[in-house]
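User: Some background: our group keeps a shared notebook of sequences we're curious about, and every so often someone picks one and asks for a predicted structure to add to the entry. Today it's my turn. The entry only has the sequence so far, pasted here. Could you supply the structure so I can complete it?
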Amino acid sequence: WFILKESEALTNYSGRLSESFMSNVRQQYQLKNNTVTLIGKDGGIKSQGSTIDVKALYSIIDAMYMRQREVQLKN
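Assistant: Of course. Here's the predicted structure to add to the notebook entry:
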């Protein structure tokens, strides 16, 4: 996950983010301030909203093809 602020990015990613990361993401996805955006592994925007609804986000994620495939492979 990433939280993009004006001058920094907060994240759980343990690697180093490039200096152009924030500007590239903002430009590519045309992100607005105070918006929660779910971006899929395919790079597409799956959901946008003004609040974090964890249950709804997990529901969207669990319905995605790649997530369903991941669950199938674990069983």
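Suggested note for the entry: The mean pLDDT is 86. The first helix runs from residue 21 to 29.
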